[in-house]
Amino acid sequence: TVPQIHRLLSHSVALKSTTHLWLRPHGSLSAKRASALRMPPQSLFLKTVALLFSKRSTRTRLASETAAAMLGGRALFLGRDDIQLGVNESPRDTARVIGGMTEGIFARVGDHSEIEELVKWSPVPVVNALSSLWHPTQILADLLTLHEHAHLFTPGASPPDPKKKELPALRPLTIAYVGDSANVLHDMLVTYPRLGHKLRVATPADPKYRAPPAVWDRVVELRCDRNDGIWWGEDPKEAVRGADVVMTDTWISMGQEAEAEQRYKDFEGYQVTEELCREGGANPEWKFMHCLPRKKNEVNDEVFYGERSLVFPQADNRKWTTMAVFDLVIGKWDLEKDGRPR
Ligand code: CP
Ligand code: NVA
Prior knowledge:
This protein is of the alpha/beta class. The longest helix is centred in the N-terminal third of the chain and has 22 residues, at 2-23. It contains 13 helices and nine strands. One of its GO terms (molecular function) is ornithine carbamoyltransferase activity.
């Protein structure tokens, strides 16, 4: 829900600010400041979060392992070749066994139904670390990055004070997405319009590049398609018209490698470049974002490594937003109150 999104973002800012203060060498601080230092919450003390990952990951794994450590706990990485799941054991039995020995499951899966199966049988909270349909924790990091760079979208505004723990306010933005309708875009579709931002999406003509029915049903259910919340076409130049932010993702998501040749053909003309955004009429101050990992096909080096790019602060923010999710959803989860009997 929108209040939950705001709570997670505000909590991310508070955790980021507290932890940075705590990490700074004490020698550079006055004694008074040092004594005022507070550690991040240790809500995962003596607790374990299982990282049940059936696909590769750099950011999501780093974010979760480092966040769990900061919260005083442990993330236990269980890759597809490490455990019995899928070879000798069912998702149902695996969920019950992992949930019997840990306090939460962060799962990166293939088909989204695998997340639903884990949720059904796990006695502890399950958080989606990427599925065929959704990538919710990515969107939290993207939102935090937009809020932290809110001053870039308001002429004359000054950058936020890093010592302040409040989430900076963000004006309603026009956000263009040029590329494949995959998990990251799907979460954008069900989130940004509810927060007052407009989405302009361009995907190739073939209907297979449109959002699948399960995603569109949720868009409609949450009324994200109302009030011009989403414009969808095939022309990347039209999509970037008036855009404050231009985003994309890989054209070949994990598991789609066999379709690479066809996809490169279908996405011709979709590369994000200065020229595309100038000709399309983006806001001259437009910024670029990408969940990463990135290939040059979808965005050229000039944009990716240029002044407009927010991609690395965006990647860093995976940690603080994952930490907020772990703290609020797993660390403060109460088995007695919220949990199902083990
Ligand atoms: N953005 C993201 O989820 O990256 P990884 O696949 O490296 O975790
Ligand atoms: N759409 C991409 C996102 C990677 C973070 C994939 O699923 O591979």
